[in-house]
């Protein structure tokens, strides 16, 4: 089911973290280190911006999926998950963006 995709993807990424670099794209990306992952996120973010400017909805969705995927790779690299991000979004729900940012600066 689509609702479970983040959980399944998180499990796959965790497994790929331990896999041989020859076995998958993600295992190879992990083996190259954090800078390679960060570079890929930068590339994907740029592609999202360009897709947004183009007005092509399907391209925007495609590029956003790529960006989310690579952000999940980075999360996995740091032992974090999509669920951690969802929990943070839930914590922020209903908060003013201004109040939320002010609360962060006090931490």
UniProtKB/TrEMBL annotation:
Q: Which GO terms describe its molecular function?
A: ATP binding; phosphoribosyl-ATP diphosphatase activity
Keyword Amino-acid biosynthesis appears in the UniProt entry: yes
**Which reaction is catalysed here?**
1-(5-phospho-beta-D-ribosyl)-ATP + H2O = 1-(5-phospho-beta-D-ribosyl)-5'-AMP + diphosphate + H(+)
EC number(s) on record? 3.6.1.31
Protein name listed in UniProt: Phosphoribosyl-ATP pyrophosphatase
Q: Where in the cell is it found?
A: Cytoplasm
Give the primary localization class: cytoplasm
User: Can you tell me which family this protein belongs to?
Assistant: Belongs to the PRA-PH family.
Recorded hits in InterPro entries, A to Z, give: HisE, PRib-ATP_PPHydrolase-like
Known pathway: Amino-acid biosynthesis; L-histidine biosynthesis; L-histidine from 5-phospho-alpha-D-ribose 1-diphosphate: step 2/9
- Gene Ontology cellular component terms for the protein in this record: cytoplasm
Origin species, per record, is Candidatus Gallionella acididurans
* Gene3D superfamilies reported for this sequence: MazG-like
Source taxon at top rank: Bacteria
HAMAP family for the chain? HisE (MF_01020)
Task: Provide one Gene Ontology biological process annotation.
Answer: L-histidine biosynthetic process
Record's keyword terms, sorted: Amino-acid biosynthesis, ATP-binding, Cytoplasm, Histidine biosynthesis, Hydrolase, Nucleotide-binding
């Amino acid at each position: 089911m689509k609702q479970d995709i983040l959980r399944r993807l998180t499990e796959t990424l965790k497994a790929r973290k331990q896999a041989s670099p020859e076995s998958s794209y993600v295992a190879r990306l992990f083996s190259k280190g954090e800078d390679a992952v960060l570079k890929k996120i930068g590339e994907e973010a740029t592609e999202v911006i360009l897709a947004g400017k183009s007005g092509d909805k399907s391209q925007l969705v495609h590029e956003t999926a790529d960006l989310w995927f690579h952000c999940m790779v980075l999360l996995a690299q740091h032992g974090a998950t999509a669920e951690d991000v969802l929990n943070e979004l839930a914590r922020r729900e209903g908060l003013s963006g201004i109040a939320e940012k002010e609360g962060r600066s006090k931490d």
